[in-house]
Every structure is written in C-alpha cells, then in structure tokens.
Amino acid sequence: MFSARLTIDPRFAIGSVERRLFGAFVEHLGRCVYNGLYEPGHELADEHGFRRDVVELVRELGVSTIRYPGGNFVSGFRWEDSVGPREERPRRLDLAWHSTETNEFGLHEFADWLELVGSEPMLAVNLGTRGTAEALDLLEYANIRGGTRLSDQRVANGRTEPFDIRIWCLGNEMDGPWQLGHRTADAYGTIASQTAKALRQLDPDLELVVCGSSGAQMPTFGEWERVVLGHTYDDVDYISCHAYYQVNDGDTGAFLASAVDMDRFISSVVATADHVGAVRGSSKRIAISFDEWNVWYQTRFEAEDKISGIDNWPVAPRLLEDRYSVLDAVVVGNLLISLLKHADRVRSASLAQLVNVIAPIMTEPGGPAWRQTTFFPFAATSRLARGEALDVRLESPDYPTSRYGDVPLVDAVATYDAASGTTAVFLVNRSLDDEAEVVADIRALGDVSVRDASSLYDEDLGAANTLEAPDRVGLRPTPSAEITDGLLRLVLPAVSWTAVKLG
Ligand code: AHR
User: Which of 38, 339, 354, 456 is surrounded by the most beta carbons within 10 Å?
Assistant: First the structure.
C-alpha cells in the first residue's frame, strides 16, 4: 500500500462545471442509429421505432448534449436526404464507413428522440463535400420559424416549432487525410470563417465550434490550431479536440496514464488559442469542445472491421463494437477527471459514441440492451459533478511510463455545489499492484458526512458486461470511506475508479 494526500477547499475553484461536459455522440455509423437506438420491429420499440430500453439507459447515463450526425459521416452527408416523407428519401453511399445510408432516420427523428431522452442537439454541418450555402440552408430549415421555402418545408414535414439548435460544429476532423474534403489549415480556416459569419448573419446567438486537430499525434497538431484560429478567432466560441486511447504494445501502465495525455493536449490547445488571442490583442477566450473522446481499439477496427468492395455497401453493419473491460472503464473515469480538471476551458465534451459503436450502451437486434463497464463512471460523474470544479492539490508518488515519463499513481478532482452544500470527489488509482491509502483534508467543508462512496474495480481487469453476462461488472460500495477530525480516509484498490459524495 502507498499513500496519497489531497485537500478539498471551495476556495481552490477551477471553473464552473458545465452540463455540456457530459455530452455524447450519435453518428450514422454501424449500428449506432439503426438496430441501436432505432429498431422499429423490436418488442420494446415505441410508435416511432425508438427502443424504450435504450431511451431509459440514455437517461440513466445522464447525457446532456448529443453531437449528430457525424463524425466522418457528416463530410459526405446531404441533410435534405434525411427529411420529408420516408418513402421518398434516397438510399446513399456512405463513403466514410463503406455502408449504405437509408435515411430512414433523419433530423426530425433525431429531434423527436432527443425529446424522449431529454438531451440537447449539437449539429455538425458538412464542410467536406459541401460548403457555406448548404450550411445556411440547414440552419434556415432548422431555426427559422416559417415564411421561407426551407422553414415552410420543415413545417410541412410535421414540425411547426423551429428545432432551435444552439450549438453547431463547422465540419468534422478537417485536418485528417481520411476525411472527405480534407483541407489545409489555411483552406479550412477560410471556409470555416466564411461559414461562421454567414450562420451568425442568420442567427447571431449561435455557439460555433471550429475543428481543431483530430488528435495530438497529428503531424499538423499545434500549427493547425494556430492557423485555423488565425482565421476564425472572432467568429467562433470553441475549438474542438478529439482523442482516443487504447492499450499499445501491451503497456497497461501507459494506458492507465491516458488522462495525462489528455491533460497535456488540453493545455497545449489552450496555450495555442491564447497565443492567437494575445497576438490579436483580444480579451476573448476560446473554449474547448472535447467533442470526441473515449477508449477505442482502433487497431482492431483496422484489422477486423474495415469494409471494402465495389459491390459491398451493407446497411448498419457491426462496426467499432468494442467490448469494454474494467481496465477501460478506469481509464474512461480518469478521462472524465481530466475534463473536470480543465473545467475553466473545456466547456463542452462528447463521449464518442453512445450506442453500439464504441459505446457505453449495447443492444442486440430483437434482444436486450445492457450497460458496458464504461457506463458506470460516466453516469456517476454526470450525476454527482455539480457546481464548481476544485483543484485538490494532490500529493502522490509517481510511476514510470514508456509514453508519458513519470506520472502520479493517483489522480483526483472534486466538485463543490454551494447551492446544495454537496461535494463530490473523483479518484483513480493507476497502480497495477498496490492499494492506495488516500487522506483528504476536508476541514474547509465544515461538518459533512459521507453520503455515498462507490468504486469500479475487479480482480480480473478484463472483466466485461456482455449479452450473456450483462451484469458481470458494476459499481461496488467503498466501505473504507470514513471521516475523522476533518480528514476523509479511503482505500483505493489497485486499478480502480472511485466517486465519493459528501454532504
Ligand atoms: O467516432 C468514430 C470516428 O472517429 C468519427 O467518425 C471521426 O470523427 C473520428 O475519427
């Protein structure tokens, strides 16, 4: 056993916890939409074909914003295909995922489904094969009440009230060579700025997200942000970050330190954005929309899932259906800690994705839906993190990693909600072998008690929830959490994630 210390004090505030930090992502990819959240023939489907069991799980997960409809998919998407009478909607090739898009589920269906799950839309426009004019058309269709061709078309398609979509992404991963319409930073910055100005001319209060890098490992990372923000600084509110992690070369210790990479990624983008602001003499601060993040076994996708063949364009194939282990869930819990630690600048984030595709929720066609291991830290953090994120002044021993050098064995953050007087503490123990004894000085919180404490860990780091064993893994109580003389003490098992609620 080793020891770590921290201090929880509402004066150490980082920034307010935006509900939008707990967003997710629904892409027309594999079985996320079709045979995922939408399965008309299923015994639990409602009159729209939406699976009620999935709706219940999405609510339980506590998802705030849902980014839609892609992802790589959006860069070849014609939004007009997805509205109007279903029988007239065209089937199209989806070049991003080598599939057929039936357009059976489109913008109206997405909006209806969002009302059921109680989440906010975040819509991405196609800046790959399309441009400013089509983005403007979509905005007119979505947000203008009526009296114009496109808004009247929306009304005729059954939706009297505008969708009133507030937050929009200006394309997706435009720095990636795999992206349809991939551009240089200069070319993308130019079209993003033009499009942002045009969208704002129509609806001045929109919140706009410009594409940052699709990962900190991209060769253009840093320079891409500098050039793109050079064009768009005054036009946008957010720049996006995307990051996916997996065990590389069997190095579990480095994988457990993935949040260190996320921390550094965020700090680098903040520094670059602030540099652009400083050069312009601007007092405006650009926020980060971390709108794709997760564990994703991308090497498995490349080796096993990739579809090819001129005559082979399946509908809703099984793609990116990673089965998440306890180890993966601890990393996901730690990535959430990282987002909270940067709550001053990360103001929106989306777990990628939501159902079946690298997802916390899985479904079987005609069968049940279940929670993956990663569901638990997300749901608990979304439920408990309220008010202000707090820096916890952590003191922890380090361990060496091949990728990130020496990193702390324990990571933690807290949130404090003055309105309800509750505090939440989120912790991970990254040690592969040893328990951590954590002592937190909570004297600044006054007379509080432990309301709830639960952890995710298992003897078997590979344990997962599956169709056959959907409840194998879940949160367990943390009986060691006790307060004496203003000190909260608890023991974190090796490779574990823990949440404690104090009030
Ligand atoms: O989430 C899967 C894919 O990852 C998205 O379509 C793309 O934006 C990213 O590369």
Answer: 354
Give the sign of the dihedral formed by CA 355, CA 359, CA 361, CA 366. Answer: positive
Q: What is the mean pLDDT of the chain?
A: 97
Distance 74 CA to ligand 1 centre (A): 10
The answer as to whether 13 is a domain residue is no
Q: What is the pLDDT of residues 47-91, one digit of tens each?
A: 999 999 999 999 999 999 999 999 999 999 999 999 999 999 999
Closest Cα to atom 2 of ligand 1: 71
Asked if 135 and 226 sit in the same domain, the reply is yes
Cα 357 to ligand 1 centroid, rounded to whole Å: 10
Atom of ligand 1 nearest to the CA of 320: 2
Catalytic annotation, pick one of 292, 302, 435, 437: 292
Same domain, yes or no, for 101 and 73?
yes
Neighbour order of strands in the sheet with 2-7:
2-7, 436-441, 487-492, 482-484
**Active-site residue among 101, 134, 173, 388?**
173
**347-395 residue pLDDT tens:** 999 999 999 999 999 999 999 999 999 999 999 999 999 999 999 999 9
Same domain for 229 and 205: yes
Ordered DSSP codes for 421-436 = TEEEEEEEE--SS--E
Look up residue 183 and give its amino acid: R
CATH assignment at residue 276: 3.20.20.80
Q: Which domain holds residue 459?
A: 4-8+390-502
Report yes or no on whether pTM surpasses 0.85. yes
Q: Say if residue 401 is in the same domain as residue 373.
A: no
Active site residue 292: yes
Residue 149 shares a structural domain with residue 25: yes
Q: Which of 384, 404, 428 is the last residue of a domain?
A: 384
173 is catalytic: yes
CATH code (residue 419): 2.60.40.1180
- The number of distinct structural domains making up the chain is 2
Domain boundary among 335, 360, 384: 384
Ligand 1 pocket residues where CB is under 6 Å: 27, 70-72, 172-173, 214, 292, 352-353
Å from CA of 71 to ligand 1 middle = 5
405-408 and 167-170 strand pairing: unpaired
Task: List, as one string, the DSSP characters of 9-42.
Answer: -TTSEEEE--GGGGEEE--SSTTSTBTTTB-TTS
